[in-house]
Amino acid sequence: MPVEEALERLLALAEAAPIGDTEEVALADAEGRVLARELVAKLDLPPWPNSAMDGYALRLADWQGEALPVSQRIFAGHAPQPLQPGTCARIFTGAPLPQGADCVEMQENAEVLEDGRVRFLEPLAVDQNVRPKGQETRAGEQVMSAGTRLGPIQLGLAATLGFARLDVVRRPRVAVLSTGDELVEPGLPLGPGQIYNSNRRLLVSWLQRLGCEVVDAGILADDLERTRQCLAGLGNVDLILSTGGVSVGEADYLGLALREAGELALWKLAIKPGKPLTFGHYQGVPVIGLPGNPASTLVTFGLLARPYLLRRQGVAAVAPLRFSVPAGFDWPKPGNRREYLRARIEDGQVRIYKNQSSGVLRSAAWAEGVVEVREGSTPRQGELVPFIPFSELLG
Ligand code: AMP
Ligand code: MG
């Protein structure tokens, strides 16, 4: 199954199972959440015309070029008096323009005479250095649509409009399970044939960045009865996310248990690293089974499960930005799967890690993102290739 098709199917499944619940949270708690309702400005921004400079406000229509006396000083945060005809007002950045003024000259272009009057040294124009009322936003305008992910910029924007609380989508509850008799948690000694569980940490911390509430189901032994029990005990979650144990190997008990108690589709993805990906349901709860090799887990989560989870929260823009960068490598052998090579940019070229084995997570730690090499393509040194930075995928 081509990667695009898998993504399309997953997004359609996500749209069919939206996280419908919403809650109201304080701005301080809204980081990483998804806006549940469009945000409509309740005020004009700025609410009144104000000065973009430290300088002098005057009314050009009444001015013949003469030096003007200063009739008031207006600081930011203070209400001005209407401008007295035949005068100017000392004004500071962000201070409201006095009624009647239509121009601000910056102080660098003004000369204060001995008698206190101000002479303007440069030609002046109406509206110069004036930020008009509503120039950024008008009351009633939609400033963010439902489905917007709230990061520092969006929260800053909500704050400029005075919103203290926002309606957001409930955090998706995601159960993470790692399968495999070989797995041991870091901190414990390794027995013969055992390896440390890396996927659990990778996914739990990644899911937290994506605003999910994680139900950490730990390590699931390769045993059918225990697998049944584990699934039955997961409780109320929106997604079961597992790694390993879902290909066609003899120890793939998760697949067996899902076939018994739910439904399961095994997708053979044209993706490398990756390939086997499971989508199914267990008692109505969607299950995504990612391949167990850590680099495969990384790539399939980033490119498929992440957009799925975002779309379930109503996020429209789930595709990561990608950039065309000259290849700093030769890829002479066309593949029949789309490869995501762990890569970093050096001297304006994208270089790939020497060992692209799906078991090597170190490749990704060295890298800054992945290069996409399409099926059948043979990019050469200097040719443009698509590069997706991890920063696009991890948040
Ligand atoms: P499986 O799909 O269960 O056959 O796993 C494929 C490969 O990924 C095997 O080499 C596993 O040992 C490895 N693997 C599976 N789960 C994890 C995990 N949580 N952490 C590290 N390696 C894993
Ligand atoms: Mg296994």
Quick recap of the structure?
The chain has about 400 residues and is of the alpha/beta class.
| Structural class by helix and strand composition | alpha/beta
According to CATH, the homologous superfamily of the largest domain is MoaB/Mog-like domain
CATH architecture of the largest domain: 3-Layer(aba) Sandwich
End-to-end distance, in Å? Answer: 27 Å
- Largest sheet composition: 6 strands, mixed
Percentage of β-strand residues: 25-35%
Roughly how many Å is the radius of gyration? 30 Å
CATH topology of the largest domain: Molybdenum Cofactor Biosythetic Enzyme, Chain A
> Helix amount, in percent?
10-25%
Give average pLDDT, whole number. 95
Per DSSP, the total helix count is 8
Number of discrete domains = 4
Strand order of the largest sheet: 16-13-17-21-20-18
CATH hierarchy class name of the largest domain: Alpha Beta
Q: Give the low-confidence spans.
A: none
Catalytic activity: adenylyl-molybdopterin + molybdate = Mo-molybdopterin + AMP + H(+)
Keywords: Magnesium, Metal-binding, Molybdenum, Molybdenum cofactor biosynthesis, Transferase
Protein name: Molybdopterin molybdenumtransferase
Domain MoaB/Mog: 175-311
